[in-house]
Amino acid sequence: MFPDGIRRALGPVLRTVANTAVEKVVAPPLQPAARAVTNFAVSSFERGTSPRVVLNPPPVVVQAPPVDLAPRSPPNVQGDGKLGAGDWLNVTSSDGVYLRPGPSAESGQSILFGAGTKLKVVAPPDNTAAVQGEFVHVQDARGNQGWVRAANAGEMSADELKKYRAAHHQTDAADKYQGVYVNQFDAEKQVGGDGSNANCGPTSTLMAMLKQGLVIPSIPGITHNGTSGADVQAVRYWGNRVSDTGSDGVMTTDANETVYSLTTENSQFTGFQDVKNAVTAARGSWAKVAANSESIQKAIGSGMSVVISGDFLEPKRAPEGTAPALVGPGNVLYLDSNQDGAPDMVDGEPMIDWKEKADTWERGGGAGAHLVAVVGVTPEGNFIVCDPAVEVRTPIEVSPEELDAFMRGNAGAIGIYDPTPGPRSGA
Questions:
Q1: How large is the average pLDDT for residues 253-271?
Q2: Cα 418 to Cα 213: distance, rounded to the nearest angstrom
Q3: Cα 399 to Cα 412: distance, rounded to the nearest angstrom
Q4: CA distances (Å), 49 to each of 34, 175, 355, in order?
Q5: Could you tell me which residues are beta bridge partners of residue 155?
Q6: DSSP strands (E only) in 279-353
Q7: How far apart are CA 203 and CA 199, in angstroms?
Q8: Superkingdom of this entry's organism (predicted)?
Q9: 65 pLDDT exceeds 60?
Q10: Which letter does DSSP use for residue 263 in this model?
């Protein structure tokens, strides 16, 4: 043991030696902590309570993060010549290519895709490889999945795909709304129909309600089979039953059972009052919206989805020199199919000669007068439209001018929103 005087005399010396040692052997980031330890030890020695002082602390070992040596597949790139999930193919064979249930010619045949059909490579349901031998697993625009021979369907280049999507108004912004999209023809097949119908109103109303989180009640007496088709039929039922039970999509059998009435009643049109009825049944709210792109943009901005009416057809205008008998009010041209100088007649009225509009998006399913759902607006001011009849079966992005062109001649709009209760306009 050292006398108190010696301990106090040695204290400064030990402190200097210790701090010098810290500067030499300890990494700079750890030096403040090391100095604190040595100073405490020297102070304890000066008071006679010194523990053993280690002036050469062991180096601090920093554990390196584990290295993940698992192989990583490079991201899939359209047009790189390597087929993978997400790639788009174009059927190149003039004979087309069959969709098959398995990756072999012996598995059978179902749909024949003609030359020019666009197919998307998707993972099989069992999550095995999308390319197996000569076959690749694909999905068509209607959601049908299966295997096709890869040699008959070449991968599209990135530029080809870009042009194809642009021609069909498909964009990344519109793709984000795929979760609310429903095709009116495919939906009817899900409940046993043939896929030929006039369900644009119920389907567009359903998509607008899905965007708002509204749920349409099931049809009393019919078990819901869990499909969008059952929801479309429920919208038709709750929308039309008040005004016309002959178009509500159901009928009662001789055994007093409620069943779908698809062939006849689904061919009946629905209107905005039917939309209001269905929204009310889903405990949602509705409001009048002026039928122009500016008002619809404001309604979307306020949180609504908007169902609008429009038309892909418009009357032809009579050119100069047309026989007076073929010219109707507003210079409308009447149809003269046999070119006898007299208009074709139906129910005693002259038939108008119609043409497709050239300044809106392409129509699908032979639609003329039509209802669609507008569910979003892009930062650039374009509209995300869910048209239940478009061939590509995806939401599309259209300009304000194209939206106004669609509404020309058959304009109407109604906003749908949640929660309930909320203000309602009109009757």
A1: 94
A2: 8
A3: 18
A4: 19, 74, 104
A5: 89
A6: 285-288, 305-311, 313-315, 327-328, 332-333, 345-346, 349-350
A7: 6
A8: Bacteria
A9: no
A10: T
